């Protein structure tokens, strides 16, 4: 079998070391990075650094590269667009790609009703605008997000985000009228409850939240990640999502599915919310929508989207021509290469490997996933389930040093999450999973000696 990883130097190599020294002088430490190397080229699921080391990518630019790095179809679309014009500003002079993208996404989004779409730059902008739209439509101010949720780093989205460090600490005061509701975490449920009992308990907790924390008639929107991303790839049970949705319908609350990390094939469907049997009023999208180009959007019911007046939405670069063309290419690739199905195949392989690791090591537990959005937890032991952030960091670093780009997540920092491109080959996937196993063994096995 071909080895895709090539390590010519230690990580980081001498050229990356030189750039790191330059970075430390001029770039604030508040902008973090996982791998200490600097990229020179990336293709598919492989990334090469400036020292000639080649990595397998299980991070996918934090879930941005579902169709792979520099997919030829995306590159071609960008080249052709750049030759014609790079930017006019949609609010100055419009372009057809914006309209075509809106048409295709409103057709793909769940719901047999008329929809509209508006485009922006980043995931946080999409969430901000979903809140604006919901408030305008309902004439209410309250916004409900969920514990462990992540929605961005702007003032509003930082307020909606749960994890205090590093996202919120020292950055207050925060936006008013934002409330955090409980979100199920099956792995950490009370020991005396089975999964069905826990589901009913969490539903009751949400209902009680609307009595003790905020009145439903004051809420404009409930914003939910169908699978929590930064929170640790936590998959809620279907009954909980459906009951939250029903409560929204009963009380005139706009239900927003935040699909920024879960969208565009990652969970085995265009949108993760499709797995839960509910139809959101608004959907926020970004990340893999543009294959690396900055673009985001809000898709929603026409009667909700149309309430904003001209000039109330948008921005200078919102829905740029390059971003729109990249997104159109992404939709073509997902369909042509059947990436929704591929995500399910990848996910099963990853979960099988996770189960093997859990069977071997007392510290590997809490395996879970939906499609190719998979995660495991590193704990002190399976009995206590005490999160082990330090060991998680060691495994991620060991994997990086062996040529695998990997990410951690979770409010405790002890979750290893997998976000490889869905275009990854079986051979690359197998090698990457072997490196993950070797890195885990290198860190954990000495504890058994």
Brief synopsis:
This protein has helices at 14-26, 60-63, 72-84, 96-108, 123-138, 155-160, 195-212, 238-250, 302-305, 321-336, 339-360, 389-401, 426-444, and strands spanning 39-43, 46-49, 54-57, 115-120, 142-146, 178-181, 219-224, 254-258, 282-285, 296-301, 364-370, 373-378, 404-405, 407-409, 415-418. By secondary structure, the chain is of the alpha/beta class.
Helix and strand topology:
Layout lengths: L13 H13 L12 E5 L2 E4 L4 E4 L2 H4 L8 H13 L11 H13 L6 E6 L2 H16 L3 E5 L8 H6 L17 E4 L13 H18 L6 E6 L13 H13 L3 E5 L23 E4 L10 E6 H4 L15 H16 L2 H22 L3 E7 L2 E6 L10 H13 L2 E2 L1 E3 L5 E4 L7 H19 L5
Parallel strand pairs: 3-13, 5-6, 5-7, 7-8, 8-9
Antiparallel strand pairs: 1-2, 2-3, 4-10, 9-10, 11-12, 12-15, 14-15
Spatial ordering of strands, largest sheet: 4-10-9-8-7-5-6
Oligomeric status: single chain
CATH class of the largest domain: Alpha Beta
Per DSSP, the total helix count is 13
Approximate shape: globular
Distance between the termini: 32 Å
């Amino acid at each position: 079998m071909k080895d895709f990883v090539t390590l010519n130097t230690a990580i980081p190599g001498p050229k990356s070391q030189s750039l790191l020294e330059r970075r430390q002088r001029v770039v604030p430490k508040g902008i973090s990075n996982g791998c200490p190397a600097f990229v020179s080229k990336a293709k598919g699921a492989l990334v090469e650094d400036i020292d000639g080391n080649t990595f397998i990518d299980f991070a996918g630019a934090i879930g941005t590269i579902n169709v792979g790095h520099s997919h030829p179809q995306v590159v071609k679309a960008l080249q052709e667009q750049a030759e014609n014009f790079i930017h006019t500003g949609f609010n100055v002079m419009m372009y057809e790609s914006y309209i075509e993208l809106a048409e295709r996404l409103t057709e793909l989004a769940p719901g047999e009703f008329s929809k509209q779409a508006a485009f922006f730059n980043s995931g946080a902008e999409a969430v901000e605008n979903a809140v604006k739209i919901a408030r305008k439509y309902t004439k209410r101010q309250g916004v409900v997000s969920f514990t462990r949720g992540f929605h961005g780093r702007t003032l509003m989205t930082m307020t909606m985000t749960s994890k205090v460090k590093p996202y919120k600490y020292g950055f207050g005061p925060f936006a008013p009228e934002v409330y955090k509701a409980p979100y199920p975490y099956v792995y950490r449920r009370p020991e005396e409850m089975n999964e069905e009992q826990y589901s009913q308990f969490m539903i009751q907790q949400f209902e009680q939240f609307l009595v003790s924390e905020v009145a439903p008639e004051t809420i404009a929107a409930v914003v939910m990640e169908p699978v929590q991303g930064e929170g640790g790839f936590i998959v809620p049970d279907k009954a909980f999502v459906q009951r939250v949705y029903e409560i929204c319908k009963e009380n005139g609350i706009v239900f927003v599915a935040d699909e920024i990390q879960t969208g565009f094939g990652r969970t085995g469907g265009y949108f993760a919310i499709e797995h839960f049997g509910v139809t959101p009023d608004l959907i926020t999208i970004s990340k893999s929508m543009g294959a690396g180009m900055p673009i985001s959007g809000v898709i929603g019911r026409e009667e909700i989207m149309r309430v904003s007046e001209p000039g109330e939405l948008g921005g200078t670069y919102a829905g740029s021509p390059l971003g729109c063309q990249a997104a159109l290419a992404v939709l073509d690739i997902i369909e042509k290469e059947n990436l929704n199905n591929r995500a399910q195949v990848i996910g099963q392989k990853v979960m099988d490997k996770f189960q093997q690791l859990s069977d071997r090591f007392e510290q590997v537990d809490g395996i879970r996933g939906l499609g190719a959005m998979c995660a495991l937890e590193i704990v002190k032991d399976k009995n206590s389930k005490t999160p082990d952030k330090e060991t998680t960091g060691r495994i991620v670093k060991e994997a990086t040093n062996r040529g695998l780009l990997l990410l951690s997540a979770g409010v405790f920092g002890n979750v290893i999450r997998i976000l490889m491109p869905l275009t990854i080959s079986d051979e690359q996937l197998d090698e990457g999973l072997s490196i993950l196993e070797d890195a885990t063994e290198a860190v954990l096995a000495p504890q058994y000696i």
